[in-house]
Amino acid sequence: MSTAHAGGTLTLAGDLTISRMGYGAMQLAGPGVFGPPKDHDEAIAVLREAANLGITHIDTSDYYGPYIVNELIKEALYPYPDDLRIVTKVGAVRGDDGSWMPELSRHGLIDAVHSNLKHLGVEALDVVNLRVGGVDTPTDDPLGELFSVVAELQQQGLIRHLGISNVTTGQLTEAQSIAPVVTVQNLYNLVNRQDGELVDRCARENIAFTPFFPLGGFTPLQSDTLHRVAARLEASSQQVALAWLLQRSPTIALIPGTSSVAHLHENVGAASVELPADAVEELNSISA
Question: What is the pLDDT of residue 218?
Answer without folding.
Answer: 78
